[in-house]
Design brief:
This protein is an alpha+beta fold and 159 residues long. The chain is built from 2 helices and 5 strands; from the N terminus they run αββαβββ.
Length: 159
């Protein structure tokens, strides 16, 4: 529109097609990053995410587990640190619901009260196991998980 000219009511400015294409292409990385699927081996086994400690930290608890069996406290208390993939966390903050393909990692660490200057309480030491939980509508027939948040437990790795 040239300065000093008037547009008729109802006329809307139009983007030129090349600009529309550029705008759509610029948005593609955002759409692709919304919910990346976890990685699997050729035989369908989950590949544990190596960078989960860089994900969003959700919570830490003492002697908690998402498994149906209670934690084995005979070998001492365990701290559980829960992480979630960043894309799922951003979606949860917008919608209030965890999206499909959300990955939760529960890292269990030995608890100790004996440290150099510690007199009371417990702190985290070495990793003893890691649980990977996935909200996956494609695997919803899996009955291995009775969680309200996810559909299946993909594995527990011991150290």
């Amino acid at each position: 529109m040239v300065l000093g000219t008037q547009r008729k009511t109802g006329d809307a400015p139009r983007m030129k097609p090349p600009i529309q294409v550029v705008c759509l292409l610029a948005l593609l990385p955002c759409a692709a990053a919304a919910a990346p699927a976890p990685d699997y081996t050729a035989d369908g086994r989950l590949i544990p995410p190596s960078d989960y400690r860089e994900w969003i930290f959700l919570s830490s608890g003492l002697d908690m587990s998402y498994l149906q069996l209670p934690p084995n406290l005979a070998r001492g208390s365990k701290f559980g640190n829960v992480f979630v993939n960043p894309e799922a966390y951003r979606a949860f903050m917008k919608t209030g619901a965890w999206p499909d393909k959300t990955v939760f990692v529960a890292e269990h660490r030995q608890a100790s009260g004996k440290g150099s200057i510690n007199r009371y309480g417990k702190f985290q030491t070495e990793i003893v196991s890691v649980e990977i939980h996935l909200k996956d509508g494609d695997r919803s027939q899996d009955t291995s998980c009775d969680c309200a948040c996810c559909d299946c437990l993909l594995g527990v790795w011991g150290f």
